[in-house]
Amino acid sequence: MATWILVAHRAGARVFEHNNSQPGLQLVSTLQNEAGRLKSGALESDKPGSSFSTGAVHGGHPMGHEDLAHERVADAFAKELCELLAKGRSDKRYDSLVLVAEPHFVGILRAKLDHQTAQLVTATVSKDLGHVPAHELSGHLRGIAM
């Protein structure tokens, strides 16, 4: 029985495998998202849209060009990651899945997962651990069902 752990942030992601027959986490894949490293002004954008927050009295507040550009970059990267996870599932490479990312990006990932892959998610960690070295991740994931 294998568990894949996706550790993602806007500039990249790593997929690890935890297998009960082997100690520690084994690196499966590393993906870079160079657009996620760009400053707001360097991202191409269109017209500003609107963002609506819950509890807003007067509707929403305008979303700037930079916000929209960052959202598009995050959406595109999340889609790429979800396609990788779906392929791993269809290839029967894992039985369960753990998602680790900052809260906003976790939400984007969950929204983009196909139904079959979403059913394999056993835990979600809403923390940005993207820069944590691989050998330290196990300590951050203690108590997570894997």
What are the defining features of this structure?
146 residues, alpha/beta, five-stranded mixed beta sheet, two-stranded antiparallel ribbon, 29% strand
What does this structure look like?
The protein is an alpha/beta fold and 146 residues long. The chain is 32% helix and 29% strand. The protein has four helices and seven strands, in the order βββββαβααβα. The chain has helices at 65-90, 103-112, 115-118, 134-140; strands at residues 2-9, 12-19, 25-32, 49-51, 61-63, 96-101, 121-126. The strands form two sheets. A five-stranded mixed beta sheet has the order 3-2-1-6-7, with helices on both faces. It has a two-stranded antiparallel sheet with strand order 4-5. A hairpin with a 2-residue loop joins strand 1 (2-9) and strand 2. Helix 1 packs across helix 2 (103-112). The radius of gyration is 17 Å and the shape is globular. It starts with a strand and ends in a 6-residue tail after the last helix.
Spatial extent as radius of gyration: 17 Å
Overall 3D shape: globular
How do the helices and strands follow one another from N- to C-terminus? EEEEEHEHHEH
**Total helical elements:** 4
> Which sequence of strands runs across the widest sheet?
3-2-1-6-7
How many strands, what sense, and barrel or not for the largest sheet? 5 strands, mixed
Please tell me the overall pLDDT.
81
Percent of residues in helices:
25-40%
Structural class of the secondary structure composition? alpha/beta
Count every beta strand, where a strand is a DSSP E run of 2 or more residues. Answer: 7
Strand content: 25-35%
Q: List unreliable stretches of 5+ residues.
A: 45-61
- In whole angstroms, how far apart are the ends? 9 Å
